[in-house]
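Materials and Methods. Structural model of Calcyphosine like. The 209-residue sequence of Calcyphosine like from Anser cygnoides was retrieved and submitted for structure prediction as follows.
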Amino acid sequence: MMPGTARHDREMAIQAKRNLSKTTDPVERLRLKCLARGSAGIKGLGRVFRIMDDDNSRTLDFKEFVKGLNDYAMMIDKEEAQEIFRIFDKDGSGTIDFDEFLVTLRPPMSNARKEIIMQAFRKLDKTGDGVITIEDLRGVYNAKHHPKYQNGDWTEDQVFRAFLDNFDSPYDKDGKVTTEEFMNYYAGVSASIDTDVYFIIMMKNAWKL
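The predicted structure was written out as tokens:
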């Protein structure tokens, strides 16, 4: 599977909790609160917002924003939530664009890191349609080495599905991983790795790039 991912996740969560006590920037605080839940933390918040966006406007008003944070059990007081909302509501329209919100919340990554993540994505996305599915994985990922396949617990497809679920959000595991989800996942992992060089080596080893 992905070597080191669980360990990076744990390290990142610990680091995020530690940094929380040091920062007063409201956006950074929300970012850290998400990262304290592991690599899929920011993506999970995105899913909550998407579910709440009943009219598919891809925007949220303040009430929806606060409800989303509460549904995701983010403990943020109203003043701080208002401050975050104001930062994102640049035009003062009373709504925020949640795609923009999620991209801003993602820990910043260098172009070198984004490029290597996209290389891994393209390698896995055999069909080249921008989504990784079980079909894509058949040619690139050998399920037969997986311990649960070897002891007869899982079929090959179950191994593939578990693999995809790593990158999918905890709330909406649909067996498909988009570029955005893959990027979000690795933005989380990336936050716990200090140097580009180390991140790139880790990716190259993990995906044989």
